[in-house]
Amino acid sequence: MTDADDAYDEPVFQRVIGYAAAADRDVVDMVSGHPDWEPPTALREGLRTYADGDPPEFQYPPSEGLRGLREEIAARRNVERSRVVVTNGAGEANYLAMARAIERDVGSEFLLTDPVYPYYPGKAELLDADATRVPVREDGHVDVDAMRAAASDETAAVVLNTPNNPTGAVYDRESVAALADVASEVDALLVVDEVYDHFDFSGEFESALTLDRDNVVVTTAFSKSMGITGLRVGYAVFPEHLIEGALTRHTLVNVATSRPAQAAVANALKETPPSYYESVRDTLRERIDSFTDALDDAGAAYTTPEGAFYVLARFEDFPGTMANVERLIDEAGVAGMPGEVFGDAYGEWIRFSLCTDRADEAADRLAAYFEGR
């Protein structure tokens, strides 16, 4: 049995990808959230322009991030520029936020949802902290009452991801506000990872920054929204009293975030029209609809995401174990992620990423495979 707490010791994503790559047949990769769509035209233009810059433009940027990029982010998020730290993707932003929670010396426990993206408990382990997973409601939404019951003086932070990976749930503003209250009652932080904020199909998403609380940290990245996971540009918005410590850790670990990548993202933010993001959402809506239609043919139960681009599927007598994921690769030619790696709540399920234009083909393969079993 693969446990989410083992994610730091054993990178399960890489294990599945490696197994699929070594297969002796064609495999549709639905493992990771690597976008297959084009980045914004203005991003490519920004990179080309940067390549022609003078030597000073190829030196260290400010540790906190390029001023122009931070100003653009601050204006869009309606916060002071001083609260923004540009990071190496959302992964580092989450790490900095969780580290600041531990550094406050008010607790050594993180409250996480179950299911949870496995790198959160991995980061908890890295920070020598405990990770307590609280099952979500049956509809995939966060269980505020259960979180409140689990919170204690040992809680350093409540960590959320909305729109959620892997359930696709979009947590409503009321629930997020209630969890900010829960965190405040035990002198903890609320850390909200909003990396999928551009992929809200429900129309219900509201950033936790709208709460304007001094115990809320919001993290995100441009990796998914612009289809540039390899450029590693993310950011965290901290309350003013937490900025100094976060920036110190960021500087000591990374010095700074890639200057050309930041410059390209800044150009893309200024020049990319809303239609770019809507077009990507339309593509994903179509993929979700056709993929879930085929899952109906396969007799599977499944989640219909309100946000992000993952579908969880449960097949009769076929739990979401690593062994069964390997079986699907070998026998159906489709690679997904075992539900057990995300925790116990969806341990019977398998997660599929819709970041491939072969999603229809994968769904047909799954339908044929389970019809023939």
TrEMBL record:
User: Which cofactor does this sequence's record say it needs?
Assistant: pyridoxal 5'-phosphate
Asked if the Swiss-Prot or TrEMBL record annotates the protein with the keyword rRNA processing, the reply is no
A Gene Ontology molecular-function term? Answer: pyridoxal phosphate binding
Q: Residue limits of the Aminotransferase class I/classII large domain?
A: 26-358
Keyword list (alphabetical) reads: Aminotransferase, Pyridoxal phosphate, Transferase
Q: Which InterPro entries match?
A: Aminotransferase_I/II_large, AspAT/PAT-like, PyrdxlP-dep_Trfase, PyrdxlP-dep_Trfase_major, PyrdxlP-dep_Trfase_small
Similarity annotation:
Belongs to the class-I pyridoxal-phosphate-dependent aminotransferase family.
State the name under which the record lists this protein: Aspartate/methionine/tyrosine aminotransferase
User: What is the species listed in this Swiss-Prot or TrEMBL entry?
Assistant: Halobellus limi
Source organism phylogeny: Archaea, Methanobacteriati, Methanobacteriota, Stenosarchaea group, Halobacteria
